[in-house]
Amino acid sequence: MRQPVTPADRPVAESSAMDLADLPRPDRAPWSGPLLLGGPLAGALGLWAYAVARTDTTAPGDFGLAGALPVAFWAGLALLAAGFWICVRDPRRADRWPLAYTLALLVMERGTQALVYPTPLYAWAWKHDAVIGHLLTAERLQTTGAGLGDMAVYDQWPGFFAAQAALVRLTGVENSLTYMAWWPLLSSVLLLAPLLLLYRTFTQDRRLLWTAVWLFCVANWVGQDYFSPQSLALALYLAVIAIVLRRGGRPAHGGRSRHLLWTVLLVPLIAAIVISHQLTPVMLVVALAGLCVLRRYRDWLLPAVLLVVFLAWNLTASLPFLREAVPEMVRSFGDLRGNLETGYGSTPTGTGPVIVSWISRLLSAAVLLLAALGVWRRPVLRHRARPLLLLATVPLLMLAANDYGSEMIFRVLMFMLPGACFFAAAALLPDVRPLGAAPEGTGAPRPARGLRFAVLPGVVLLALTAAFVPSYAGKDRLSHFPPHEVALVRDVVEHAPRGSLVVAAHRNYPLAYGRYWDIGHYWFLDDTKEHVARILKDPAGTLARNMAGVEPPGRAYFLLTQGQIANSEMNGMLTAEQLRTIEQSVATSPLFERVGGNSAGTVYELRRTEATP
Q: Which strand (E) or helix (H) includes residue 47?
């Protein structure tokens, strides 16, 4: 019988390496008092509350919320990061302190927007509210394009939207807009439990555990925590992976019957992922298959069940979408350069957007470089936590598969982060010997001390924490829709007769998909450059011809809002001057009549005359 290898039996080179996975859970340190641990936390939250009360977001500038926040916010964030590092660098601290600091971080970095903006952010979140509105109105799914056009795809993956529609009905709120602004905070909190379970599978060292969680929170800037199916699907994905790795898939104490039981218990989570999102099930299939190939999970039953559920759904409910999408997927498969280039889509213009774009890229690069350093410096950890290394690398395969509507590079980064942040945290921590190889009486890990192990990692952590704010909220100028803009668009959408058409420059405005099952929406910046050039040459005439096909009792409206102007300017499409020129041409044309407007935008209706082109 093969005897287990003890730390003393390992080669010297391996014994001197950091092996956090071998460390037992250290005894808790004596209670340190509120001044040392609670003081920075309370001070940070106090500064944050003071800053929120004095933040003016009526007109976000080129740096978004990051440029509007007072100095008190940044001081509070610095105090929070410093307090967290003081707390977490001692492995004897109880978990309640780093948990409290992490929750405070999420409140400060993801809850601030919900407090300082009077309306929910992000046009895509408003779009998802429209999908929920459709389900509540139709009271059934419509999986074909009849009457829905491209929006039929949302009824083909309805899990998230059906759950939100049920929540709206059960709570009696008017719509999901009531709580939508708080979803980024809620979805981020939901990730903590599976992350902690995942990391605890490979280490009991609180330093590594909580530093990895903190890094994940500040590195996940890509904005996929907003009110969306992928925000919930990511939490379910991590839950499945964490449970799979926690139990290990090794036959024991029940054999196949135990595997079957766990598979049955995980089927509801898998089904929820499959019916809610297109990409997450693919990532889960690849991750589970990789774990099985590496023999870190030894039961192929669960990947097989996942594949069956995935294929069953895609060959039935979502088949109409796939019939149209598969040819394009096949054409883009393997086009790594093309898929990467579309990930950046448009080109940021202006000092603010360019700087914000570079900060976000540097933040991601820094975390990935730290992860590479952690993998290189910690050979034993690299071996013991190989499943996390796999989870950090297999998403890269998806870059060769498709551009995913110009977002694949951001989704890949999101799925890489859970594994990457674990190794990035290891790079920031001091060396720790395996317990058995340490001299007698010195086996327990000690607090990090000195410039190299205590000060420099704290500075790096602070820099990454501060970089999150502009990366995450630096584009609020185009994501924020003031109440006047919401009221203007809502008036058009709610009063437009059935069969009407709303024409706008870009879809970046609230209710851009409002009543999409009753009225049409057209955004001319989605057209070819040649057609946009014709609009610039003869705005009123070209737009009138585009809008002339609306049949009575429908009406045709031209809408221009500040959200459209901000998005067009910041992403290098048309300048504000060009859009204002188009508006001026429509305003002075006898073909149009001004029917609404305020400080956030204007609305014009196409006159119904025989002279209409």
A: helix 39-53
The two counts, helices (H) then strands (E), for the chain are 31, 5
Whether the full predicted model's pTM is greater than 0.85, yes or no, is yes
Q: Which of 88-92, 352-356, 423-427 has the lowest mean pLDDT?
A: 88-92
Cβ–Cβ < 8 Å for 444, 25: no
Tokens in use for 414? Answer: 């999101």
**DSSP for residue 158:** -
Q: CA 444 to CA 378: how far, in whole Å?
A: 18
Cβ atoms within 10 Å, residue 64: 26
**Rounded to a whole number, what is the distance in angstroms from the first to the last CA of the chain?**
89
Q: Which residue type does 160 have?
A: F
CB atoms within 10 A of CB 575: 13
Residue 61 DSSP label: B
Angle (nearest 5°) at CA 510 between 506 and 515: 95
Q: Which residues does residue 420 pair with via DSSP β-bridges, in sequence order?
A: none
**Whole-number Å distance between alpha carbons of 103 and 206:** 16
Q: Spell out a b/e string for 284-313, using b for 16 or more CB atoms within 10 Å of the CB, else e.
A: bebbbbbbbeeebbebeebbebbbebbeeb
Name the DSSP letter for residue 137.
Answer: H
Beta strands in 82-219, from DSSP E residues, in sequence order: none
Which has the closest alpha carbon to 234: 252, 220, 249? 220
| Statement: residue 346 has pLDDT above 60 | no
Strands (E), 459-514: 501-504
The span from the CA of 586 to the CA of 589, in Å, is 5
Across the beta sheet with 601-606, the strand order is: 520-523, 501-504, 556-561, 601-606, 592-598
In this prediction, residue 382 carries a pLDDT of: 82
Question: What CA–CA distance (Å, rounded) separates 276 from 267?
Answer: 14
List Cα–Cα distances, 159 to 89, 134, 232, 308, 320, in angstroms: 41, 14, 10, 18, 17
Report the DSSP beta bridge partners of residue 598: 601
Q: Which one-letter DSSP state was computed for residue 444?
A: S
Strands 501-504 and 592-598: unpaired
Closest CA to 503 of 519, 486, 490, 485: 519
| Dist. CA 247–CA 241, nearest whole Å | 10
Using the 8-state DSSP alphabet, how is residue 222 labeled?
S
pLDDT in tens, 268-296: 999 999 999 888 998 999 888 888 887 76
Contact 490, 548 (CB under 8 A): no
**With 70 as the cut, is the pLDDT of residue 24 above it?**
no
Query: Taking Cα atoms as reference points, which of 76, 206, 47 lies closest to residue 469?
Result: 76
The three-class DSSP label of residue 360 is helix
